[in-house]
Queue: 3 jobs
Job 1
Amino acid sequence: MGNADGVFPEAEFAARRVPVPPSRPFLDTFRANLKETFFPDDPFRQFKNESGPRRVVLGLKYFLPILDWAPTYNLSLFKADLIAGITIASLAIPQGISYAKLAYLPPILGLYSSFVPPLVYAMMGSSRDLAVGTVAVASLLIGSMLSNEVSPTEQPALYLHLAFTATFFAGLFQAALGLLRLGFIVDFLSHACIVGFMAGAATVVCLQQLKGMLGLEHFTTATDIVSVTKSVFSQVSQWRWESAVLGFCFLFFLLLTRFFSKKRPRFFWISAAAPLTSVILGSVLVYLTHAENHGVQVIGYLKKGLNPPSVTSLTFTPPYITVALKTGIITGVIALAEGIAVGRSFAMFKNYNIDGNKEMIAIGTMNIVGSLTSCYLTTGPFSRSAVNYNAGCKTAMSNVVMSIAVMITLLLLTPLFHYTPLVVLSAIIIAAMLGLIDYEAAFHLWHVDKVDFCVCLGAYLGVVFGSVEIGLVIAVGISVLRVLLFIARPRTTVLGNIPNSMAYRRVDQYPSAESIPGVLILQIDAPIYFANASYLRERISRWIDEETEGFKGETTLQYLILDLGAVGSIDTSGISMLEEVKKIIDRRDIKLVLANPGSEVMKKLNSSKILETIGHEWIFLTVADAVAACNFMLHSCKPGAIQNDNTSCENVV
Amino acid sequence: MGNADGVFPEAEFAARRVPVPPSRPFLDTFRANLKETFFPDDPFRQFKNESGPRRVVLGLKYFLPILDWAPTYNLSLFKADLIAGITIASLAIPQGISYAKLAYLPPILGLYSSFVPPLVYAMMGSSRDLAVGTVAVASLLIGSMLSNEVSPTEQPALYLHLAFTATFFAGLFQAALGLLRLGFIVDFLSHACIVGFMAGAATVVCLQQLKGMLGLEHFTTATDIVSVTKSVFSQVSQWRWESAVLGFCFLFFLLLTRFFSKKRPRFFWISAAAPLTSVILGSVLVYLTHAENHGVQVIGYLKKGLNPPSVTSLTFTPPYITVALKTGIITGVIALAEGIAVGRSFAMFKNYNIDGNKEMIAIGTMNIVGSLTSCYLTTGPFSRSAVNYNAGCKTAMSNVVMSIAVMITLLLLTPLFHYTPLVVLSAIIIAAMLGLIDYEAAFHLWHVDKVDFCVCLGAYLGVVFGSVEIGLVIAVGISVLRVLLFIARPRTTVLGNIPNSMAYRRVDQYPSAESIPGVLILQIDAPIYFANASYLRERISRWIDEETEGFKGETTLQYLILDLGAVGSIDTSGISMLEEVKKIIDRRDIKLVLANPGSEVMKKLNSSKILETIGHEWIFLTVADAVAACNFMLHSCKPGAIQNDNTSCENVV
């Protein structure tokens, strides 16, 4: 290490030069990059050094986690799962019926969808807390996207077939993402984006419920706030007070139970049982008062029996396949994002791991199987999973219990729902949706990161004033733009020496950092790419201009040290940029010095021959080394001094 | 600094803690960010501390650089510009006529476009070497995009009006980009992308010339290689040998002169004058042999006189405005990218600066004025500017000289072009295009950066097999994907101590780096964003797994030091990630330690309260400090030892 008095012991430095990494065959690098991109979790590690049959068992266990936990399953675990399963079933039945209405589908489909998919997930899913079922946002999305093409009232059969087809494509897409290890696509829906998007969707869903609450017969198919308000207030004369009173009473009841359960977490089951209680109370009330004849709409006849097969209903013919495909992909991604986020959150609480790609395969298979058995899109909704978790579930067996409870309902109890008023279902949806508007998270975003808040707000406003797709595009667009802008406008900062240390840090962050006379140290905070190469060239020139303007005295700027420690990567435009900077400052008699380049940067500097232009001896391991070398040259190379080693005074001018 | 024997002097460390930057008002930060994004070159600096009238003068000089250089213009400069101007005029006339044919426009428009725009650029442009004129690629693009909507042979007047309108929009878009300081959009066309795109366009343009070379009457309007080959070989019987022989003779002549001029740079004028020579020779030959009656097509009648105004020709009516707008924006960006890249290259040679945003305003204004005076899209073509530079131009006056030469041609010499054979124009275009296929640059890309090579190849294949737009979309897509992938899969590497120093560097880059027992040091190489948060969480877990697997002995992993020096930014997803990592490793009795966070990261850690969870005393200025602290705790906190300072042993477990 260079000493404070400026001695520049060549031998000592030589041992600490930045090496050029040995060149590796292209295919090796390519394979390594591919592995890091698609298999960062190294799923094949467990298969190493195992025999053939053992590998098959491990492979089966990978795809069917039930094989892992079933052998050690016991009675005490089952007791816990039984209670949790019954609790979520009491929530699943009314929610399933409600959400099916949201997608303009027959209510019975909501029950079907709570029967088959949970069984599939119980075998394939790796989360112990996820409770499978339909979700409000995806239901709304399916409803609004499909009804744009086919009217659910005029062509109900075709509409139903399209819903199954869309679910099939969603499942296929989800499973394909998992199998192709492309799970990171879901990561591009940031947390901020999801918060805004969910709140927007919740607002939109609540607005849609005005139809049920006010007992309206006709309603707009658009989801934006302007159309809905117009639609509601254009038919004030059609409002039915009986319906509204009933609806708001139940809404109040539901919100009250939730409030109570939140205050006393021990009584979580009160809010969990409230929807089913509301349905029973509402049905009894209607049955006794014959309110169905006084403007209160009811569910009506529900077919008894289990899911009929729907393989033959899938529609792959040209005019409709496009809309089914589009709906499937968009709703599939949304459902996947929710399911994985929910699974991860609860896994965090209980300290186990969720494999994102494996979950995608499980959720995808569940939807493929569902689409063949008259189910529509399912995932792991937050509300139901939270109830499951609070009820003390231990394994995915709670899904099986829920599934059996739904099966019994389908076989025996469907006639009981005949008199269930729609307005109660609306109240259940609104109560669930109000819980999705996470204004505290939005406050937190504003407080911590303004750009994230913009993403969140953009998603919210896009969904509320435009449509669900527009909101999504806006949010993803802002998120990606932010990343690109970070790359396009990287920070360059001047470094100074922290007193009594060899550390060099940003002078704007550490007021005590001292600059070195005659030496300008710049740190570049991002990879050098085509998108920022010309910006960086101009910004570096400006730093030099500003630096030289200040100095009118004896020691003018002689060295520019670029700290490349934070430059993770460089492309050919970046290499040209360095070459141009070198040319520009050479003409001003300033020497370019590099500090701490990474191995990829060194490799490219070498293969592009610019390493020779800069001179390997002007590349240092640390900024401190570089400064020591510059100081040595500054103080010992007075006119007349002659040295003949590598870093001779000739190089200075 | 902590000593080697593990003493942990609290007082010394306290002075070197990482400070939380003072919170600034939101608007201040916003303004600073806005300035850095849109005004990185600080164009208002020169206006500071100036009086009102002086500011007006400076502002005029900003927009009209001619005011800067005209006052000191002298005869010797003019002599140089005169020679350069005449040389480029001799190139401009045949090239202008040829490129107009490429855009399916009347040949005279090529001459018009070399008259008005250079005059505008001479006043507003800041490059001294750019020679203004039409370019092959943009001409081809205009031709292929407009002819998709309107047939140039069936509705020539409408087609012409659309070309003017597209030029108007291109100019408006270019000037707007400059005025709105959005010049960085052009940066997203990387060098690699332009190399591939240009080569592809050159190939396509050469293929188009087969029409002229073979004297074909009918030809496909598609530009891809498959359609063109089919079109050429489906009408073998129509091939005219007279035309082909003439064409290949001139092509040979042109390539020979270029080869000669390249070998002897002093005779650059030979290759510069070759096109005009070819035109004269060809015209005389046709006139003498009456070859126009034997299958050699000629230009025919050219109207005498200067540019007629075309204000009334601009078409803003609905069915056509879309295609004009689309064509204008795409060709405008392409033309801008070429003009600015060419201007910058020559400015580099002569050591002066080009202001990208100012150039955009100049090129944009030039095209707006051009569209009103019967010109179509112009920019600074590479070939013509290179000739200008070689001919020794000194200022933009050479453009004025060229303009005057073209004016004289328009007023007096147009009848001379009556007998010019089209095949000579095709030969001129092919010769120019072959120079654009920069296979050496492609080799260089392959050698230095494989991804950049893919971008280049993608652009080339996209243009040749698809269309110009497809090539562009592929190239920009791959480029952006690369940036996003860098963010989505940042490198995390283990650091070790370089012997005899306080530096910690990547162990895979520096084989001599030594790891510290019980401490894992990880460096994260990119900003922590939503796109990589879950990847990083899993990758860090895997590093810990791999590290603990290795240690079976006494010292197991107790500290995880994250070096955040290269983390330029963090968003709320990133903050949550750190929180989760802390939770995960806390359960494994490992302590999280941060080293060298930047000011933005510190600010967000603080405002999100995670700073308190981690503990400010576990955030260090350098990795060396962090290691020293960890070592101190490892060696002095044996069971039973009790300390009461900030970094007490209680924190360890």
Note: The first strand of chain B starts at residue 492 and ends at 497.
Job 2
Amino acid sequence: MLILMSLNTPRKDIDAVKNKIVSLNCTPHEIPGKSKLAIGITGPTDQLKKEDFIMLTSVEEVVRVTKKYKLVSRMMQSDDTIINFDGFKFGGESLQIIAGPCSVESKDQIFEIAGSLKESGIKFMRAGAFKPRSSPYAFQGLKEKGLEYLQEVKKEFGMVIVTELLNFVSLPAILETADIIQIGARNMQNYALLEEVGKHNKPILLKRGMAATVEELLLSAEYIFSSGNKNVILCERGIRTFETSTRNTLDLNAVPVIKKHSHLPIIVDPSHGIGIWDKVPAMSLAAVAAGADGLILEVHNRPDEALSDGFQSITPQALKELLEKIKQMAPIVNKKLVLNEDK
Amino acid sequence: MLILMSLNTPRKDIDAVKNKIVSLNCTPHEIPGKSKLAIGITGPTDQLKKEDFIMLTSVEEVVRVTKKYKLVSRMMQSDDTIINFDGFKFGGESLQIIAGPCSVESKDQIFEIAGSLKESGIKFMRAGAFKPRSSPYAFQGLKEKGLEYLQEVKKEFGMVIVTELLNFVSLPAILETADIIQIGARNMQNYALLEEVGKHNKPILLKRGMAATVEELLLSAEYIFSSGNKNVILCERGIRTFETSTRNTLDLNAVPVIKKHSHLPIIVDPSHGIGIWDKVPAMSLAAVAAGADGLILEVHNRPDEALSDGFQSITPQALKELLEKIKQMAPIVNKKLVLNEDK
Amino acid sequence: MLILMSLNTPRKDIDAVKNKIVSLNCTPHEIPGKSKLAIGITGPTDQLKKEDFIMLTSVEEVVRVTKKYKLVSRMMQSDDTIINFDGFKFGGESLQIIAGPCSVESKDQIFEIAGSLKESGIKFMRAGAFKPRSSPYAFQGLKEKGLEYLQEVKKEFGMVIVTELLNFVSLPAILETADIIQIGARNMQNYALLEEVGKHNKPILLKRGMAATVEELLLSAEYIFSSGNKNVILCERGIRTFETSTRNTLDLNAVPVIKKHSHLPIIVDPSHGIGIWDKVPAMSLAAVAAGADGLILEVHNRPDEALSDGFQSITPQALKELLEKIKQMAPIVNKKLVLNEDK
Amino acid sequence: MLILMSLNTPRKDIDAVKNKIVSLNCTPHEIPGKSKLAIGITGPTDQLKKEDFIMLTSVEEVVRVTKKYKLVSRMMQSDDTIINFDGFKFGGESLQIIAGPCSVESKDQIFEIAGSLKESGIKFMRAGAFKPRSSPYAFQGLKEKGLEYLQEVKKEFGMVIVTELLNFVSLPAILETADIIQIGARNMQNYALLEEVGKHNKPILLKRGMAATVEELLLSAEYIFSSGNKNVILCERGIRTFETSTRNTLDLNAVPVIKKHSHLPIIVDPSHGIGIWDKVPAMSLAAVAAGADGLILEVHNRPDEALSDGFQSITPQALKELLEKIKQMAPIVNKKLVLNEDK
């Protein structure tokens, strides 16, 4: 950490800063410059906060040198984290596809889609039983009934189930059904919930908030990690910008940035990201090319009848064609698409 | 709701849309235009969703005419909602000030600040016992101990207490201490929590999310309303933009927009909004001039020693000077600053 | 400027950085820290660019300590710049109002509005002869004819004319008519145009670009200054964000930020800023309360017939009521509304 | 166009709207709905503006049905526009690479880079002679001298030259040297300049503004088209968002959106888009996968010595490796990378 002060700072203000540093068990180092006086700090600087200094008289700026996240950073662990489901892996050279409808709507619907997905070799199925909706009057999911259907789908088709956790109350039920617990964009900074799922060992799919920076996403993952759960998969799903021709702005830049700074797998959700079904395949391929460790795709057998988000869902047939292209593209970026042979 | 189709749409596609409308118990009306065919809909259109139509063949756009929120809208209730604490009101012609430190740090700190505030005639005190922090390593609040101190402050100084609820688990404790429950920006779309506080009658201070539109803020208020709690105070606290010279971009435009579309009181948090202490007074005055029903201000007796957000806190002395100016300004916008005479 | 390197950087990389510094006629200072090695630089650091160092091996970050703008900064000149038109001033304790229609539409229109404005004591009239429009099919202004009418208005009513310059070609004509040359948001980073108007002595009204930071606005003012013209008035007119309920997000935070860092007058355009006529008065008062040096307002005698931007224009009657409130509010923020007594 | 009014609108207000429509030579159609009255309009609606109606009494909303751009839309021309340079094409199935340094720095530099590019089969060379820089103190390019070197490069290596036009004054010189004239992000809404280049026949590379929507980019292209020049190549180069870990947010979503709505070629600039050299290859591949018609890449033989933007430049060696991957990836998205065999 560096404290910047103006060159003509009175000696007593400089001394106040240095005394504050000493009082925090660190050591100050005066570094005079041409236009500013910098005071470097050594010692247990982890404990220091910008706020410790910024209000002191004559202090102009406080510069933090190190990243705020630790456990999830590449500095801490240089090898990729691999999250393994019976040989189906997230991270490393694997490329995984999670697919399914936005919501569980009925047993028939979920079974029919699961059947189509299995035929395409998809191992991971997404479907929401509890849905966060900006309007209280919109369809909120089948709730417990939805989880029940997901249990049956798992038994019948051997799918690995990804479903969203909205709150503490439904955690026991979600823990029973989900193989991967999704924390949605709106809950990315619900720290209490992050700490709670951090106490279990079940893999967490953590989606980036609509206005969250990459650093904040990693800090939210750090909450889960520091609570004990090291099985975290990050997910880029579009951020909010001024552009109105797409639902969100899928930020693929986040993929290479996260791959560089963190060892966690990062997957991409082009369905929410661009939000228009006929443009989902293009963005899916772009995500793979950018180096993503996987995709999470909304697939619906009758998108025009979907109770939610039909407009961004692709059909099982479109998925099949997309998988064909992904299979070809993956090796170019040193990835391998892993599909379920056991159809 | 209006469905727009291209002029040369085949008859069967038009009929499919009209049949869908009929199947939803509504009535279609064909309206040919120069470049588009519009189909108007009458009947119980509240039940319709854009998604019902957008995927049908040949449909180009679906335009919703009415607002998605109802109970919180001016259409539903033209008079201002007034939330009353023994004559200290939010809404109508009243202008209220909530002030206090970001966090409860110690009994001494909270008592000293409460004393200063009381002297200035402040009736509403804010202070966090549970703090949401983007890093798990930052100070998270004194938790239960903090609530205890707030209880004592209430007894000693007769303050009305505003404190943040982070999750279900601490709801009972918060209900016991808080007179106004704050739902922070990060929880604005934590719908389960909104519904939960909607079951109680305690006033809620609902802060706008960092990337939430005004419509989404009103829809979140609608969640609380439709769960039964009609005591909601909205709060603008800055949105996230590309600008980096301020912590957030305090969006005062939201004030006249909300005053027009909703009957709920709307207050402003300039401390988080601009995030730089010496610019808080200017933005406070601007908020009053824009028509806000109140302010929530971070005040700390020793900002440079604050455990969180000291950089955006003003001193009790600065508050006193600001109140003087607000008192003069309020009548110009038909407001009256109500301070506690009982000092 | 500070160069940050990791602690275990090999000596040869450190030496490479130090040699680079020396080659640029500056002096390096090694400052070892706990987790990083910083190299401070003294000497003629103005000439240094981040890019000089960021690519060198082992360099992790380059921190610039001083602001990039100089001539327009408060450090360079602590007193407010005052721009004076026969006693009507921008800057210091004056509060000025510029008003008028978006575009000159006809001689009758411009004369009628000028008459109303004069009656209200308005000295500065805005009206565009050349209009920048996002569509080539929208009304582009009366061009030379419009300037002619503005000349006549000036003669008849003694108004000070503010009109927009779009390009080099029309500069001579604009110079002849305008008393203040407006550079619009879309041209804020048209550096060639900035340098060109910088060669003349005529006051410039420089509007902030839709996605320009405060620093970039000040750097654009620096272009005009460093070309020789010191008569610059800055204008906040709304930035682009995700919010859709207002045309733009008027960023009043920019006012106290700019007042702190620059000596230039800063005025506010609430008409473009919020873009909805019935909310313009609220944002006008907010701008005054935030400390703005003036307002630029769209006023039209028949807003519903305006050829452009009628939706954000207020009537002369609404202006009169607004001026009354501003007159009362100004002294609270140490300002004085200066109107033309010579009606 | 549709005018929405409330159901209980008095007859005289409805008639006023209908009379206005008739006075504009169009025909009104009343369409009563459940909660609103809509008035549809037929006839020459192209001439109508939202502003014609929005201010009329009782009008609540005006909905425009058709897109504002015409000539550049797919509706007007369903086949891709192809821009051909002796068999090297932009548009259709071709994938083109433009590469080169940010600025011409010296004859040696530009010759050395051109040599490397030619070796890799690159036909299109970018290099700025006039540079737009946010600070007046930053390197502004070699100007005329730079164009001279570009002329020599063209003669020596047979390169097609892409260079930026900043203003009217340098247009003759640019016309003489450039084969493709670049209009930069800051000038995307400099309409006078767009109309000026629209009068010539030389291909234009039009970059998206930092806060421009896709629709605005297409409208700016429409300016060039409607002035007579149909040789326009669009370029996505990153937009401005709240994210700070990348220089800009490269918005690849724009690629499939533009491919759907316009027939113009769209290329991508990952160098400015993400702004960090080691992440440029990942975003380049992502752009190709998203369906882009080409890339424009900053390549510098000694990025650490570049006078501008070295931090986002890749080396000729990195380019070579990238081209190898692009060559493999292109056919998957039905594209063909066209390189110059004549090395």
Note: The radius of gyration of chain A is 24 Å.
Job 3
Amino acid sequence: MSATPIRTEAPATDPSSAPHPFDEAIRLEALADGRFRGATHAGFWNQVGPFGGITAAVMLNSVMLRPERLGDPLSLTVNFAGPVREGGFSVEPRLLRSNRSSQHWAIELVQGPQRELAASALLVSAVRRDTFALTEATPPPAPPAAECARTRHRSNVTWLDRYDMRYLRGRPLHENEDSVTHLWVADLPERPLDFASLAAICDVFFPRLYLRRPKFVPIGTVSLNVYFHQPAATLARNGARHLLASAQGRVASAGFFDQEGQIWSDARELLATTHQIVWFRE
Amino acid sequence: MSATPIRTEAPATDPSSAPHPFDEAIRLEALADGRFRGATHAGFWNQVGPFGGITAAVMLNSVMLRPERLGDPLSLTVNFAGPVREGGFSVEPRLLRSNRSSQHWAIELVQGPQRELAASALLVSAVRRDTFALTEATPPPAPPAAECARTRHRSNVTWLDRYDMRYLRGRPLHENEDSVTHLWVADLPERPLDFASLAAICDVFFPRLYLRRPKFVPIGTVSLNVYFHQPAATLARNGARHLLASAQGRVASAGFFDQEGQIWSDARELLATTHQIVWFRE
């Protein structure tokens, strides 16, 4: 036997068998009464709470996990009532009404012994049909994602490391002429697109105010709205390829500013339109 | 006495003392437990139920009437779960969370002994503050409302008679090159603007699909979203003057189409941005 310390190799693991951080973050444990237990994830932390997009994804996921859920998500509104604190939470989807081909859900995310409400949401799911289709919006001009460089950031918030973002237009904390932003975005590491990850990606944009003023101020999304325009099969077809995203603010006034955004597939299908209204400190 | 039948004059009434049809339609009677009783109004009828805008206004009004309500409406999402039937209904606002300067509300509109849900809503109210302000959107080009002719309609739905609409761009049931619509709009008879009437006006646009196809098909708004960008004083300043409204659809796909809209004051302040997603039958 040699006196040399033996350097044990870590057991060879298949990286594909390790859970993806996004799946870890939206993981929910079903409780007896249709509610779910989840927990915040250190990898999706923002300044004073989780990335809003991951909270939206967790709330959407609770409906996806309910066995009586009908069709695909069509419309999602998440109102952020207060910061989600680090640790466990309860996600409580309630089926308000079920029609022949659509359902109306309300979802609450509560924490602590006082059951403090952190976020409330409304979701409509619907069976999508093959119909007349027309896209009036146009995707932003962009070279293929593979030809664009990943944008590096100098922030200590962890959620930014969960996305490969390749900014094409819009420089934050500068006085741009307008707030228009274009970027390629994908989960990091790569992950096939689904409704939960698409909902989260609707919230990846820099705050619109930062595109018009070179001044950092605290901000917080109050309400996030997402309309899903394609069935699950179209999302699956995109796989893990980058999405082309654009956003613009229309107005800042009396303590709040807005944002409108569009999320396009790699094949230039309009997957989602999204809107939010955001509080800011002067 | 003469045998000639006496033609009695109707008693002279002050027209300003008669309730405005909009106020009649959103009138709510407070019940003991924070709920309200209201009823549909024949003057705001659409094809198979009330005009969606008046339902949104009634739900917003229920929060305005709650004594603990804080600040002005900031964000309103109304999900239409099924047709509102003619007759009475119960509007049930629930305060989910009250913060220092904002509140989160959920509202349900239910009907009948089975308490069937017709619409559910989320509303955020907030105390508005004087802050940095910037409007990046631009109002549509338009001559003064007084120089534009009122658009006559040939429809038997009654709610269209509750608005003075002066269309400037966008001809319904024609194959327009795009779905962009511009119009002047005001309550008829005239009525000073408030949050309830502004919410209703967010839903006055022709369905976007009708701007791209010369084909009438049944449609129904599934979810309506409104962001209010100005405090009550700005709305009051507009008084009964016409509002300048614009709308555009981005996409129709798999049984649903969307709409984005902006509502500007006569003085060209952006009062509200609005979004909806609408079901259509092929």
Note: Chain B touches chain A through 60 residues (CB under 8 Å).
